[in-house]
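Each field is set out underneath.
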Amino acid sequence: MSHALPGVPLAANEPAYPVLIYSHGGGFRRQNTDKALELASHGYVVMSVDHPWTTASVFPNGQVVVGTGVCADTHACFQPTLTNGIRDLQFVSDELSRLNTADVPFAGRLDLERLGVFGFSLGCVMVAEFCRIDPRCKALVLFDCGPTLDLSTNLSQLGLQKPFLSMNDAISVGPVPPTLLGRPLPIPGSAEWVAASRSLFTHAINNAYWFQIQDSGHQSFQDRGTLISDPSLTIDPTPASRAQSLAIRACTVSFFDKYLKNQDDHLLDNPAAVHTNIINFQSK
């Protein structure tokens, strides 16, 4: 059951709303609908991108475009993918300015001075690098980046001096077949898997948050894991998967409220006190 309806007007309780852009991992733009719905319910306009590596994209005229693959064997091989991903986010940001000028119902209702981004898996490196170089981006949330942040040498060497929240899985559930930078991907949840996001946290001076969610896997950070609870798409949500989704959504809203709305509910002071499945919490 969806809580979203087509064709409804924008809420009128605020003159303009902060805007968030979502960058997907392997898959497509609708893979994190629970987060988009939650954020929209808290006064955010949420946009999402189909990148060139999307599974498939359906255009308004019905045309279906199948996505391309991703080469991540070397930094040079990955650079076109990174460049295109950043350009996608920049293009959407530009289009938002146009919509805010001349579109119905968005004209004058988008507060682009309060622009944030969030990404899952491969989308993490896109939003992090976009936020690093584009002053329009004010804050970002990262859903289980794994080692994808290592695909940007700038992030590895320079870090990211924008407010960010990094949430990570905690289950080691066997090897992952693909390779990254010429090496097999580490096991999700392992120390090697979270090393890149830990490094990003270490490089940050302030306004950075990092934690893991107990018993979560990589898919727990998208609809398939939290709302369906099983890669086979046959098992209903479990109490544990619902609790994971609740913690992820609550912390995402709390973070963006703090840095885009200047409203602090202090959940991120100690999120494990409220959501006991949060472990290894760090902040600065």
Observations:
- The domain at 17-283 is CATH 3.40.50.1820 (Rossmann fold).
- The longest helix spans residues 75-102.
- The two ends are 39 Å apart (CA to CA).
